[in-house]
Prior knowledge:
By secondary structure, this protein is mainly alpha-helical. It folds into two domains: 11-85 and 154-217, no CATH class; 95-143, no CATH class. 37% of the residues lie in helices and 9% in strands. The strands form two sheets. It has a three-stranded antiparallel sheet, with no helix packed on it. Strands 2-3 form a two-stranded antiparallel ribbon. Helix 1 runs antiparallel to helix 6 (179-197) and helix 3 crosses helix 4. The longest helix has 19 residues, at 179-197.
Amino acid sequence: MLPLGAHFHPYNALLGGKLVACLIRSRDIYDDFARTYGKTTGIISQEEKKARLLAVTTSSSMGRSSVYNRLKLGGVEYFKSIGYTRGWGHFHIPDSLFAELRDYLREIGHPYADKHRFGQGPNWRMRTTRVALETLGFEDDMLRHGIQREVFISQLAGNALKMLHSGRGRPDLSSLLSADDVAHLAVERWMLPRSERRPEFKTWKRESIQALLDDQRGELPSKPRLRA
């Protein structure tokens, strides 16, 4: 999932999250990815890769996304909704409880307690939580939080899906703009009109950040603990 900072003051009032989301689909990101990962060696396969960033997937934090939906600039769709998750996950399991579950598995000698390196299976935290709860006698549906997440795809290459299916071809980057061009379109489309309707962002001060953090800290719930 992409951390877009959609709730960072004062930029949330100006729809800054939409701007950051659109920057994912830019030529700068494509080129940076190619420079960083284009000649890397696969950890599992040990083969040299010619990696190119054809598409990016992400999901909403919960439910329908107000950031990714209808995300278009200049007639180009920057993110497309492809469905919803089924509502399973581990985000409702706090870090303190997960640490205790790991300690328990470590005590009984279960390998999942520390088997979290790349190549040792997908979603280690989910597997670790599930096996710990089952070993303690709980139903695995405790991992079903019931909150569906909307899933999106951003295709940097116009023929991304075709290439991902076939494993062949040359990326069509004809509609891919520079980060500067994307930012300009986003500012004109969303941020300037919003700044005129909601000018209160001008009153935001550096000191307001600490006040905001203090307010949010006071709203945090107490963390549950695993008891015998």
